[in-house]
Amino acid sequence: MSSEPAGVTAAEWECARCGGRCEPTExxxxxxAGEEVVFQAARxxxxxxxxxxxxxxxxxxxxxxxxxxxDDGPLGTYRAVMALASRxxxxxxxxxxxxxxxxxxxxLEEDLADAVFLAHQSVGPEPVVAFTKRDLLDAGQIRxxxxxxxxxxxxxxxxxxxxxxxxxFAEADRGLHPRIAVMGRPCQIYTVRKLLWDRFLPGYExxxxxxxxxxxxxxxxxxxxRRLRALLGFDPSEIRHVRFLGEQLEFGSSGGERRAVGLGDxxxxxxxxxxxxxxxxxxxxxxxxxxxxxxxLFEAALVRxxxxxxxxxxxxxxxxxAPSAQLYGTSAVRDDERRALSFLSAMVDIKRELTRSVR
Length: 359
Fold this sequence. Notes:
Blueprint: E1 22-32, E2 35-44, E3 50-53, E4 80-86, H1 89-92, H2 98-109, E5 115-118, E6 129-130, H3 133-138, E7 149-153, E8 156-159, H4 160-173, E9 179-184, H5 186-194, H6 197-200, E10 205-212, H7 223-232, E11 239-245, E12 248-253, E13 258-262, H8 263-266, E14 287-290, E15 299-303, H9 306-317, E16 321-323, H10 325-328, H11 330-358
Parallel strand pairs: 5-9, 9-10, 10-14
Antiparallel strand pairs: 1-2, 2-3, 4-15, 4-16, 5-6, 7-8, 11-12, 12-13, 14-15
């Protein structure tokens, strides 16, 4: 393929921070999934914000404003805040992503997606893809790796490793599973939303995007791995769960062990890429989910798009997911919503503060 840029140029970009016009400053190329891709750096003439894009494979952030307008607050656009629990017996007992796994299984079972790309799981170019319920149940909740990302707009990072994995999947799949549901954290969902699929992955399309709240991609290597092992008391490769609890992070292992560790003890082990991104609640997803507080039964879900609203409603109607209103009534649900929104907004601020303290 040619490496010549096409589509939106840097001079036509709208600034992701203020909406002003951006002017190009420099071009350079990076290898992405085995091909040379030209990235164009730009600076906003109004506020000075610097960003970059790859017009040949990425749409501009302006094109994403319908999903998450830049002036729509720290959590982005959403249609509903819900507390959801899985009613599927296998996922209900599953130590990993119960609500997310159940919703993704519904998409596969109802032939609404051909495959689920688990972008948050792999730390190398080998993709992790689920085609069956067993695949989803076998998938762990978190993997660790340095990742490969680049800032493309307003503090949002495109995850280039995700592109490597998706290209590897498409080359092996040869068009057999064209409708892809993607599960990932903010940089991964942002990447698949920006991606011009018809150019980068001809014949494939994004069927659904499901985000999981981002507590930072812990990527201990060498001495960092030994340090985290000492803090946790178990091998960091066994981490399957990370949850924020006040001034601590709680880590859970595949064997059911849990250990709370102070933020200051682990902040230096967070992937530097994660400390450049302000998105915690996965603004560009159709639905984003994660635990809020210590409730093990229900998870908070931000239903963001019309597609997300439809899929959640259908999964509830099919008896696979249960909203807290079915157990506690509407007044308790409103309290749950307020607590969830307060928590998630605070987490965005905390992530920014953590970023400032360790950068």
